[in-house]
UniProtKB/TrEMBL annotation:
It comes from Methylobacterium tarhaniae. This is CopG family transcriptional regulator. PANTHER family: BLL4998 PROTEIN (PTHR36215). Gene3D superfamilies: Met repressor-like. GO terms for biological process: regulation of DNA-templated transcription. It holds the Pfam family RHH_8.
Amino acid sequence: MPGPKLPGPKLPDSEKVTVNLGFVDLGRIDLMVRDGFYANRADFIRTAVRNQLDRQEEALRQSVARRQLSLGLTHITKAELEAARAAGTPLSIQVLGLASIADDVTPELARAAIASIHVLGAFHASAAVKAALADRIA
């Protein structure tokens, strides 16, 4: 399975997520921000998410190991996919974090070289490559 490949193209370090909150919870967050506990709403929410993930760290670590996930950033290059295709061993990509496929990868190469892709986090690839892999993305 491909591992972290840096440096590669400049990748974003976060993904935007929309969260719906009740008015009272939102007001409580705004009060915490106004009183200086947090810089803004996003700071509060990021902190809350990190705290919850820290509380569940051991369960997360066990799940990552059990599922054999690559942790962090994984960038799949055209050369890696060409090598997998030439060897006749399509890749099964499993990532917790960010998986990206190089912009110069064609949909045909992606289909020939990737057996499956399972990403918990974010998956960046061209629209054409994502469409070509649609039936292989879990």
